[in-house]
Specification:
Largest sheet of chain B: 5 strands, parallel
Shape of chain B: globular
Order of helices and strands of chain B: HHEHHHEHEEEHEHEHHHH
Mean pLDDT of chain B: 96
Helix content of chain B: 40-55%
Strand order of the largest sheet of chain B: 1-2-3-7-6
Structural class of chain B: alpha/beta
Number of strands of chain A: 14
Radius of gyration of chain A: 20 Å
CATH superfamily of the largest domain in chain A: Thiamin diphosphate (ThDP)-binding fold, Pyr/PP domains
Largest interface: A-B, 44 and 47 residues
Radius of gyration of chain B: 19 Å
Distance between the termini of chain A: 49 Å
CATH architecture of the largest domain in chain A: 3-Layer(aba) Sandwich
CATH architecture of chain B: 3-Layer(aba) Sandwich
CATH topology of the largest domain in chain A: Rossmann fold
Number of domains of chain B: 1
Number of helices of chain A: 13
Oligomer: heterodimer
Low-confidence stretches of chain B: none
Low-confidence stretches of chain A: 327-341
Number of strands of chain B: 7
Largest sheet of chain A: 7 strands, mixed
Mean pLDDT of chain A: 94
CATH superfamily of chain B: Thiamin diphosphate (ThDP)-binding fold, Pyr/PP domains
CATH class of chain B: Alpha Beta
Number of domains of chain A: 2
Strand content of chain B: 5-15%
Strand content of chain A: 15-25%
Order of helices and strands of chain A: EHEHEHEHHEHEHEEEEHEEHEHEHHH
């Protein structure tokens, strides 16, 4: 099987879907040249009509996508960085996500908003945020964050075929990650998670770039005889909670790893769900490993400190093995870092 | 202008007026949940523009949107039921006054956010161009919305892409309670078109026939692939920003007696009525019959709404994901 980068897989998905369905088109700032290469070369095949460069007008472009979607087209709107979604928030939340419901089912808005998400390349505060929890909190949006090239291809194809608005997030730090990608019509259904590592002792839930972090931590833990099961929800909303709960019922320990912030982050949702639905199976308090609650700093040293590391994941897993943890203050050490400094 | 078209425009205006008068009464009686923004005084704009459109053209509306729905051919009963929050309403009671839509007639929805509907109309225009039809898309908005970023981004986007879009500004001179001169840097919003290289046309928004004329020209231009037009229709709200605002404002006054008097004097329906009489478009008896029939239809819509069932609580999880 050929090995491809994450962005090459994105490009394959776009090209295949555009060939399959003439109503699929790509619109956004510099999609012809393709800032992240995921759209590069598509203009040569599909031309001006279907690969549309726009002004730097995130709000209008996001809203224009809704207008096109509710009148029968399937736009893929490339807004480049997750943080640029903030500029388009009104149109995404109030129009794309709400149209179908507030109009009593008259409309459907099959639209994909595609961006890079999170940090890791010293892009600074305005280009490095993990924005997914904001969209997880928006009713009737789907939120997807693939962790590898094959999933990226399969999930993007599924997102384009979905009749609902989808936020498609490519983790910024793994756009060059290589993996095996088939050339066939590979579809990964939205809402279905994947077990990235089988284990018996602790369940680690992680998505996007954090899957690599969790796998690295799992290798370290294995040397000490702790076998972690790593679950990647792949779709953050709606998410495959059954897969996580089944695993927790088996392992009895749970660690949630997410690059976004600790307050109302993805990890918060995962831990809350496990606490609510699998509490009696837990042998220790579930743990969160989240990004530090600060803006994204520029310095590589500082940025590494903000983004969850494999060492922090290892430490969190170890806390679930400490004796008599239940009932004690189990705040993750990582969360105290800022307060202590 | 032939008589049929003139009567058509007048009929759209009268339908709006009678519906809105009834809504005002119902609101004052406390029969409607939420709040409503009436279109009385601005009828000439929606009627004049929509009379220049085909059934398959698109419109996107505002928080003051009842007039646009009616002018595009909307159904009184489904509208009224929606205002009552009933399951038989256009949006099954999930939308309300500010979110009425009728996709069957190209009415892509009212919008509770000032300026929020404008980009969507640009997208509908993009869609028409992409699909190779000659449909046009119209976005109505107020003078207040012309200070939103969505307005400026949308004009530029539609201009560079040469999209078949009419930007119709209903300048009623107030953004909520703030007069235009305190909020807007230009006297004429049409001037803003120059900044985007598109035509900006001012029209008397109380003169429905004049509105129709400029709209028809802009529509023809859009259909011919020559791009968008900004139309500024200068008009007046006869009533408040929202019904019941006197109680809300607790005695606060924001409109001068002179401007209020002007708004009352320049009633677009009365102006159109005089023109119809002057032009012998219709005999008085027939006009009375038209008014009677419309009034009767409004009354029936209220009965329909009252008799309609409320949505069942479990309906909250209907119309979610496709």
């Amino acid at each position: 099987m050929p090995k491809k980068t994450y962005v090459a897989a994105i490009k394959d998905a776009l090209a295949e879907e555009m060939r399959r369905d003439p109503n699929v088109f790509l619109i956004g700032e510099d999609v012809r040249l393709g800032v992240f290469a995921g759209t590069r070369g598509l203009h040569a095949e599909f031309g001006d009509r279907r690969v549309i460069d726009t002004p730097i007008s995130e709000l209008a472009v996001a809203g224009a996508g809704v207008g096109a979607a509710v009148t029968g087209l399937r736009p893929v709107v490339d807004l480049m960085f997750g943080t640029f979604l903030y500029l388009a928030l009104d149109q995404i939340v109030q129009q794309a996500a709400s149209a179908r419901y507030m109009f009593g089912g008259q409309a459907k808005a099959p639209i994909v908003y595609m961006v890079q998400n999170g940090g890791g390349i010293s892009a600074g505060a305005h280009h490095s945020q993990a924005v997914h929890p904001i969209f997880m909190n928006v009713p009737l949006l789907k939120v997807v964050m693939p962790s590898n090239p094959a999933d990226a291809k399969g999930l993007l194809k599924a997102a384009i075929r979905d009749d609902n608005p989808v936020i498609f997030l490519s983790p910024l730090s793994i756009t060059g990650l290589r993996g095996e990608v088939t050339d066939d019509d590979h579809i990964v259904p939205l809402g279905v998670g994947d077990m990235k590592r089988v284990g018996t002792d602790v369940t680690i839930c992680a998505a996007g770039a954090m899957v690599q972090t969790a796998l690295k931590a799992s290798d370290a833990l294995a040397k000490d005889g702790i076998e972690a099961e790593v679950i990647d929800p792949r779709t953050l909303k709606p998410w495959d909670e059954a897969l996580v709960l089944d695993s927790v019922r088996k392992t009895g320990r749970f660690v949630a790893v997410d690059e976004s912030k600790p307050i109302c982050g993805a990890a918060s949702e995962w831990v809350a769900t496990v606490a609510e639905k699998a509490f009696t199976f837990l042998k220790a308090p579930p743990q969160r490993v989240s990004g530090q609650d600060v803006a994204s700093p520029f310095s590589p040293v500082l940025e590494r400190t903000v983004i969850p590391s494999a060492d922090e994941v290892v430490a969190a897993v170890r806390r679930t093995f400490e004796k008599n943890r239940a009932g004690q203050d189990s705040r993750a050490k990582s969360h105290d870092l800022v307060l202590d400094s | 202008m032939d008589n049929d078209k003139t009567l058509d425009i007048y009929t759209r205006m009268l339908r709006i007026r009678r519906f809105e008068e009834q809504v005002g009464t119902l609101f004052a009686q406390g029969q409607l949940p939420g709040f409503v923004h009436l279109y009385i005084g601005e009828e000439a704009v929606a009627a004049g523009v929509c009379a220049a459109l085909r059934d398959d053209d698109f419109i996107v509306s505002t928080h003051r949107g009842h007039g646009h729905v009616i002018a595009k051919g909307g159904d009184f009963s489904r509208m009224m039921a929606e205002l009552f929050g009933k399951s038989t309403g256009y949006c099954k009671g999930k939308g309300g006054s500010m979110h009425i839509a009728d996709f069957q007639i190209g009415m892509l929805g009212a919008c509770g956010i000032v300026g929020g509907g404008i980009p969507m109309a640009v997208g509908a225009g993009l869609s028409a161009k992409y699909r190779g039809t000659d449909q046009v898309s119209v976005t109505f908005f107020g003078d207040g919305a012309s200070n939103e970023g969505s307005f400026h981004e949308s004009l530029n986007l539609a201009a560079v892409m040469k999209l078949p879009v009419l930007f119709v500004c209903e300048n009623n001179q107030y953004g909520e309670f703030t007069p235009m001169e305190r909020a807007t840097s230009v006297r004429d919003i049409a001037l803003r078109a120059q900044g985007y290289g598109i035509p900006g046309i001012i029209v008397d928004g109380t003169d429905a026939l004049a509105v129709y004329d400029v709209a028809a020209k802009a529509v023809a231009r859009a259909r011919a692939g020559q791009g968008p037009t900004l139309i500024e229709a200068k008009t007046h709200r006869k009533g408040g920003h929202a019904e019941g605002e006197k109680a809300f404002l607790a005695g606060g006054v924001y409109r001068s007696p002179e401007e209020l008097a002007e708004a009352q004097a320049k009633d677009p329906l009365a102006i159109m009525h005089r023109k119809m009489m002057d032009m012998n478009v219709i005999v008085p008896n027939a006009l009375e019959e038209l008014d009677h029939n419309i009034t009767q239809a409004v009354v029936e819509s209220v009965a329909f709404a009252r008799q309609s069932p409320d949505p069942k609580p479990e309906a909250i999880y209907e119309d979610t994901w496709v």
